[in-house]
Each structure stands twice: as structure tokens, then as C-alpha cells.
TrEMBL record, chain A:
<dbReference type="Pfam" id="PF00528">
    <property type="entry name" value="BPD_transp_1"/>
</dbReference>
<keyword id="KW-1003">Cell membrane</keyword>
<keyword id="KW-1133">Transmembrane helix</keyword>
<keyword id="KW-0812">Transmembrane</keyword>
<feature type="transmembrane region" description="Helical">
    <location>
        <begin position="112"/>
        <end position="134"/>
    </location>
</feature>
<feature type="transmembrane region" description="Helical">
    <location>
        <begin position="78"/>
        <end position="100"/>
    </location>
</feature>
<feature type="domain" description="ABC transmembrane type-1">
    <location>
        <begin position="74"/>
        <end position="254"/>
    </location>
</feature>
<keyword id="KW-0813">Transport</keyword>
<protein>
    <submittedName>
        <fullName>ABC transporter permease</fullName>
    </submittedName>
</protein>
TrEMBL record, chain B:
<dbReference type="GO" id="GO:0005524">
    <property type="term" value="F:ATP binding"/>
</dbReference>
<comment type="similarity">
    <text>Belongs to the ABC transporter superfamily.</text>
</comment>
<dbReference type="InterPro" id="IPR017871">
    <property type="entry name" value="ABC_transporter-like_CS"/>
</dbReference>
<keyword id="KW-0547">Nucleotide-binding</keyword>
<dbReference type="InterPro" id="IPR003439">
    <property type="entry name" value="ABC_transporter-like_ATP-bd"/>
</dbReference>
<dbReference type="InterPro" id="IPR003593">
    <property type="entry name" value="AAA+_ATPase"/>
</dbReference>
<dbReference type="Pfam" id="PF00005">
    <property type="entry name" value="ABC_tran"/>
</dbReference>
<keyword id="KW-0067">ATP-binding</keyword>
<keyword id="KW-0813">Transport</keyword>
Length: 272, 262
């Protein structure tokens, strides 16, 4: 009797375990799939013309059909974006540390930066074209300009919010400004810095594609604008898809770097 | 006995000539090896006193002399601990404790070559405060009381002549606080360090200190100086004795009238 009841009670559990699906892990894929399904059904149901909204199946068809163009232009956009982003990381970190160093510099430069950030970058591209001609350089610079601001602000914030007690403890020991920056300020601003990279990388794509659309012979922006002028709407959407994929991939990379570099910040907030 | 800290007729005003006067005519002396407590109504300039002694603020009038030298810049012979333990979360507890050694001039150049010796010292301190074996933990893995113990180790690692404590136990529960009183009592006895404790807790002052300074309301000055008569070593039981309670009662009365006078 006992043997029988044992096998019965254990059986469903043993069977259920390998069947279990991790819904949280699967969710991003399922939701994306769901979006494409709804989109496809809507296009069929409303009978939308392909020049207005192509169905995802049509977009994927365009991806296959124009693969070499999409691949080449994607690489170009990835190149300009990453280069601009890289410059923004270097420059933003340096300027952020500079601004966070003293209250006077902070007070003086901050309004200037806000004003600069408020300028629509699309208005800046023609100026860049006058200076550098069309092509890669304006795209890199636009990506740089647009992604620079969040990095500076975040690094400066990290430095500006050092606890006064920590500073007192160290200054009473004879610490110089440089010591406090190296021992406390810079490590402390790192979570802010790595957090800002996620925002900055997506903005960098906005900048580079914007510039490519207005003034370039290569890149996804250029490809989409010429596809649009030929009413090749599926190719426009294929370009958008390529951008979304690049954006997600780079964002994921930044999130991974953030986690690797400043894991303590996540754990310490969890512990509190 | 020579005085380690002597403050003479000091005025300290914040924010220019029209700013608030935090302390005025402040005079006090603390002998070497003494345990002094400073109590007073809130806003009486106790924290200003901390900053004057450590050289974080330079007074407009009067002199502050620490270890025979007039204070004109931060003095690195002082260790400080605040109510907020301010452990750096990216460093382990041990690395946090070693931090002052990376700053203080006479240690920072020796640290790399003599790391083993310094780590040994830090571990000895951890053992003294009852945190043996916790050096590798990060501060956020420790409880509030444990962080405050580590904070004391950090304040003591560079062997300061003077330890300044600004309400270090204010944020802790009653039992943890009493435990840490004993830790501080034993540290004082073992290390022979001079301690100035700024506190709101009168029982804490009476239990720990040799001398209690009562400050007036702002602008702060010393109203009275009490010599605490109880023998050392003191046990927590002391706090239930009549003389102890009389002293606390008297301190309480003095601070209450100082508040009214303000």
C-alpha cells in the first residue's frame, strides 16, 4: 500500500518539473511575437495597402530581399553610433568630473549645458555639413552631441552628492580634494555613470540616424530616406527593424557592463 | 597633566559677519587620556565644537590648541565617528577600516609595503569591537550596530591621539547602544586614547565620561563642568544606582533651564 501511494504522490511532481516554463525569461520573446502577430492580423483585417503599413511578413521578406544593403548600412550606422557614443563616454566622463569638482564650475557650466542640450540637433546637422561635408563625420558628431549630456549630468550628480560626513572624516585626516575625489567621488559616481550609458547609447542611435537621413550617402538613415522616396515602404520598415535590433543589442551590452562594474550598488540598495 | 585640547574664548560665526553665531566665548580643556562628554540642548553648537577641534573650521576669535599646536588646518591626529557610519559600499569592511591609512601623511607611503602589518592591526581592532572574521564582508551585509563598530575601528586605525565621537550611537536600539558603550569603555581603557563624545544621551555621558561639559543654547558656551566620580571599570549596573541617577537628574535640570534661557 505504502509503495503504491508513494509512487502516486511523487509521480505528478516528477513529471511537472521538466515541463515547467520560465515565463519571465520567455516573456520578452513572447511579447515581441505577440506584437508581430497583432500587427499582421490588423493589416489583414483592415486590408491596409502595402505603401501605408506593410505586414511584418512583408517586412521580413524585404529584409531577405535587400539583405546585403541592410547589412552594409547597418554596419555603417553601428560604426558612426559607436564612435560618437565612445567620444561621448570619454568626453562626458571628463567633463562630468570637471563640473563635479567645484561648485563654481558646476554653477557656471550647468546652464550653458542645458541651453546646449535644448538645441534641436537636427538644426545643428546643416552647420556640421558646412564644416565637414556630408557623410560619416556629421553622423558621428551628432551621435556624440546628443548622447553626451546624460553622461555629464549623471557623473556630476554622483560627485555632488558625497555625504558631508564622509568628506569631514577624510578632511580631518588631512585629505586633499584629489584624495576625496579618487577614494570617494569617482567610485561613488560610477553607478550613475554606467546607468547613464544605457540612456546615452539609445540616444546616440537617434543622433546618427538623424544625421544620416539629412546628410549622408550611407547608413540606415540614408537607406530609409531613399527607400521612402521610391515608396518602398517595406524596406523603410526593414530599416526600422534593423535599428531596433541594434538598439536592443547595444542596450543589453551596456546593461551587462553596468552590472559587471557596479554590482555593489545594486546589492547595497537591495540590502537596505 | 598636560592638556591635549585647550579651547580659549572661541567665537565661531557661519556665513560672514551677519551670519549666525554658533559658539561664543567657548572655553574648555581636556587632558590627555581623558574621556570627556559634551551635552547640551539641540542646536547648541556641539557639532561646531567637533569641527573646531579637528580643524575643519577655523574660529574667527580665540585659539584652539590641540597637542601643543594651534589649529590652523585639519589635524591628522584625530579620528572621527558620526551617527551615520558612512562606510563606503564598494569596499569591504576591512578596506573601509584601512581607508584613513591611505590618507594620513605618515602612513600613506608605508601602506603598500607594510600592508600585512596594517591588516593585522585592523583585524586586532575588529576583534576588540567584537567583529572578528567580518573583515571580508561588505558594509551593507552588516547590521547597523555592526557598521557602527566598524566605524569605530576606522576612526582608530591610524592610532589617533584624540577620538571625536558625534552621537555615534544615536541611531541604534537601546540594547545595541549599551553593548557599544561597553565597547567604547574597553577601547578607552585598552588604547589610552583621549575621547571627546558629543551626545544628547545624558546616561551615556554619565556612564562613559570622566568629565561632562554642559553647553548653553546657541550661541554655545560651557555652562558647567562636572567631574564624574564613579570608579573605573564601570559596569552597566552602575546606571541603576542612586548617585548615578542623581547626576543624570542634575544634568537634565541644567539643560532644561539652558533651553528656557534661550
Amino acid at each position: 500500500m505504502t509503495i503504491v501511494s508513494d509512487t502516486i504522490s511523487q509521480d505528478p511532481e516528477a513529471k511537472a518539473r521538466p515541463m515547467r516554463i520560465n515565463w519571465v525569461r520567455a516573456a520578452p520573446w513572447l511579447y515581441t511575437l505577440g506584437l508581430f502577430l497583432v500587427w499582421e492580423l490588423l493589416v489583414i483585417a483592415l486590408d491596409t495597402p502595402v505603401t501605408v503599413l506593410p505586414a511584418p511578413s512583408r517586412v521580413f521578406q524585404a529584409v531577405v530581399q535587400y539583405w546585403s544593403a541592410i547589412w552594409k548600412n547597418s554596419l555603417q550606422t553601428l560604426f558612426t553610433t559607436t564612435l560618437g557614443f565612445g567620444l561621448a563616454v570619454g568626453g562626458g566622463l571628463a567633463l562630468g568630473l570637471f563640473i563635479g569638482w567645484s561648485k563654481t564650475i558646476y554653477a557656471g557650466l550647468y546652464p550653458l549645458m542645458i541651453g546646449f542640450n535644448a538645441i534641436p540637433k537636427v538644426a545643428v546637422v546643416p552647420i556640421l555639413v558646412i564644416w565637414f561635408g556630408i557623410g560619416t563625420i556629421p553622423a558621428v558628431i551628432t551621435a556624440f552631441l546628443i548622447s553626451f549630456f546624460p553622461i555629464v549630468v549623471n557623473v556630476a550628480t554622483g560627485l555632488a552628492t558625497i555625504e558631508p560626513e564622509t568628506e569631514d572624516v577624510l578632511r580631518a585626516l588631512g585629505a586633499r580634494k584629489m584624495d576625496i575625489m579618487l577614494k570617494v567621488g569617482i567610485p561613488r559616481s560610477m553607478p550613475y555613470f554606467f546607468g547613464s550609458l544605457k540612456i546615452a547609447i539609445t540616444l546616440a542611435f537617434v543622433g546618427s540616424v538623424l544625421s544620416e537621413t539629412v546628410a549622408a550617402n550611407y547608413g540606415l538613415g540614408n537607406m530609409m530616406s531613399s527607400a521612402q522616396s521610391q515608396f518602398n515602404v517595406p524596406l523603410v520598415f526593414a530599416g526600422l527593424l534593423a535599428l531596433a535590433v541594434e538598439g536592443i543589442a547595444m542596450y543589453a551590452l551596456m546593461a551587462w557592463i553596468e552590472k559587471r562594474m557596479t554590482g555593489w550598488a545594486h546589492r547595497s540598495t537591495m540590502a537596505n | 597633566m598636560p592638556h591635549l585640547v585647550s579651547i580659549d574664548d572661541v567665537d565661531m560665526r557661519y556665513g560672514g559677519a551677519e551670519g549666525t553665531l554658533a559658539v561664543s566665548g567657548l572655553t574648555m580643556r581636556v587632558g590627555k587620556g581623558d574621556f570627556a562628554a559634551v551635552v547640551g540642548p539641540s542646536g547648541c553648537g556641539k557639532s561646531t565644537l567637533m569641527k573646531l577641534v579637528t580643524g575643519l573650521h577655523i574660529p574667527q576669535k580665540g585659539t584652539v590648541i590641540v597637542a601643543g599646536r594651534q589649529v590652523t588646518q585639519p589635524v591628522s591626529i584625530v579620528g572621527m565617528a558620526f551617527q551615520n557610519p558612512t562606510m563606503l559600499p564598494w569596499r569591504t569592511t576591512l578596506e573601509n577600516i584601512l581607508l584613513p591609512l591611505e590618507i594620513v601623511e605618515r602612513h600613506r607611503h608605508r601602506l603598500r609595503a607594510n600592508r600585512r602589518e596594517y591588516v593585522g592591526k585592523a583585524e586586532h581592532l575588529l576583534e576588540l569591537v567584537g567583529l572578528k572574521g567580518f573583515g571580508a564582508k561588505f558594509p551593507w551585509q552588516l547590521s547597523g550596530g555592526m557598521q557602527q563598530r566598524a566605524n569605530l575601528c576606522r576612526a582608530l586605525i591610524h592610532e589617533p591621539d584624540l577620538l571625536m565621537l558625534d552621537e555615534p550611537f544615536g541611531a541604534l536600539d537601546a540594547f545595541t547602544r549599551e553593548e557599544l558603550w561597553c565597547v567604547i569603555r574597553d577601547l578607552h581603557a585598552a588604547q589610552g586614547v583621549t575621547i571627546i563624545l558629543v551626545t544628547h544621551d545624558l546616561r551615556e555621558a554619565a556612564f562613559l565620561a570622566d568629565k561632562i561639559f554642559v553647553m548653553s543654547a546657541r550661541p554655545g558656551r560651557i555652562l558647567r563642568e562636572h567631574r564624574v566620580p564613579f570608579e573605573r571599570p564601570r559596569e552597566l549596573e552602575l546606571m541603576y544606582e542612586t548617585e548615578f541617577n542623581d547626576l543624570v537628574h542634575q544634568l537634565h535640570g541644567e539643560i532644561a533651564s539652558a533651553r528656557i534661557a534661550a
